[in-house]
Amino acid sequence: MSLLSSSPILADSKKLAKKKSFKQPLKSIVKSPLKWAGGKRKLIIDIEKLIPASSSRSRLIEPFVGGGSVFLNMQFANYFLVDSNPDLIALFTHIKNNHTQFLKVAERLFSIENNQASQYYELRREFNATPHSLRRSVLFLYLNRHGYNGLCRYNSKGIYNVPFGRYKKPYFPSTEIAYFAQRAVDAALVAGDFSLAFDAALPSDIIYCDPPYTPINETSSFTAYSGQGFLYRDQQRLVKCALNAQQKGITSIVSNHDLPVTRELYSKADKIISLNVARSISCKGQVRKPCAELIAIYKGC
Description:
alpha/beta, Rossmann fold, Adenine-specific Methyltransferase, domain 2, seven-stranded mixed sheet, 7 strands
């Protein structure tokens, strides 16, 4: 029996899975409160086409929730959101529990005085040192909006080390935070390994996976956003989870770069779809070209 079977987290997720809710259809693509490298906002329409028609009565599970763009733009009865980055989940939890307080505290950091390198690095040092959960979360939002190119990166010791971004006037996402809080009422949030999401899955669920991508080359890997790299053996472990879920009647959808190595990795998927998506990870604008991505689909039996 899974260690998660008696967990309050799993109990909460199963309770949410049975809960009925109704939401008005979205009229446009909703943005995340965070800048997030590799976010799926540009692929929402493509991903939505792959979701079974009955999904509005089901639960969406995301083992790698990231910035939350898929969650924010998909219409499900409820959601089970997991990420290995505890700072990300803590931020989302504070927004869910009391977004009014969070907004009030966080907005103070978005000032002219704080939009300079010296103050950014001072606040980054505070973030890495503070044990206070709310303070760390508002600093996480500040660093995300003021740091370079929406990156979220830690060194091997778990120290956040993204450099100053030098933006003229960083945007304070008050509207996005309020909307996230509204949607998160129907979501369970968990910090941990992606396997926890698969352990919690029920036959009526849909699983969407957006793992750290297999690098295109040796210099393009940005997988250490939770303090630990996401290695090829982790990619293999994810595929094993998807195949096991498939045998239980659960459909899993996985995104990644479209490369020979990933084509081989997902060779047992029922279907692979290739897409071209513009990415802007590179600091050189002239090399920010569309790159091929794929979506692998493991249909529940």
